[in-house]
């Protein structure tokens, strides 16, 4: 039998019509105790779930912050790469004439090495050679 519990505004108490009609108000208390025990158990389960959600929420915040940091680092690296590419192309196109058998890069590298080396002509030719 299901208790019909309601709050009486006249007496400011909870009343169970079902048990009052039967003359057994104590039966309602037993049912209430069982329901309270059941509610406490369900509350414990919900509290554990809430703890798990709190942990997951904290992990989401950490991941969100990590994602922001990675995006910021990626943007910084992209800017640095673009600047390095710009500088590299500036050097390559400073070479007006590339030599036969060489790429513009190889010609520019040879020019730089020749300009930096302070030794004799033989050493310059060795430095300018491919694979060095």
Q: Which characteristics define this entry?
A:
4 helices; mainly alpha; 132 residues; 2 domains; rod-shaped; two-stranded antiparallel ribbon; 73% helix
Total E-strand runs? 2
Query: In angstroms, what separates the terminal alpha carbons?
Result: 95 Å
> How many distinct helices?
4
What is the CA-atom radius of gyration, in angstroms? 42 Å
Order of adjacent strands in the largest pleated sheet: 1-2
**Domains (count):** 2
Poorly predicted parts: none
Q: N-to-C SSE series?
A: EEHHHH
Quickly give the structural class: mainly alpha
Mean pLDDT: 79
Explain what the structure shows.
The chain has 132 residues and is mainly α. It has two domains: 5-94; 95-132, no CATH class. 73% of the residues lie in helices and 6% in strands. It has helices spanning 17-22, 25-94, 104-116, 121-128; strands spanning 5-8, 13-16. A two-stranded antiparallel ribbon has the order 1-2. β1 (5-8) and β2 (13-16) form a beta hairpin. The longest helix has 70 residues, at 25-94. The mean pLDDT is 79.
Topology:
Elements (H helix, E strand, L loop, with lengths): L4 E4 L4 E4 H6 L2 H70 L9 H13 L4 H8 L4
Antiparallel strand pairs: 1-2
Helix pairs in contact: 3-4
Task: Give a quick rundown of the structure.
With 132 residues, this protein is mainly alpha-helical.
